[in-house]
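fyi for ur records
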Amino acid sequence: MATATRQQAQLSERLIYLGKYSAHEQLAHFLYEIYLRLKRIKAVRDNSFFMPLTQELISDALGMSPVHVSRTFSMLRDEGLVIRNRQHVKLPDPEALSRLVEFNDSYIDEFLPPSFSELLKASP
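which gave:
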């Protein structure tokens, strides 16, 4: 039941940000959510993380064209919110990105299954 409730909350949050926010805010929300999730598994260092997603995959996830995703990344870069170098992303001021989209992280599960945590500890 808890898993279903969490999934419903995630779906609701995604529908809200896809319908409510501009492309600029959608990409900011998407990046901040990835940042938070990776931070919780200790995969963020100095506000930077590895994101092996192509612009095509991101555009599919957000319902934008790859060209629009590229332009939106440029806008976020020009505002000093996101630095992207190929598959590496840095958020110079993650809190500013969070404020931009009024991010609510209550739908993100705080706890990882022990087996996943152990797997991360064993990896180099």
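The longest strand covers residues 48-50. thats all i got for now
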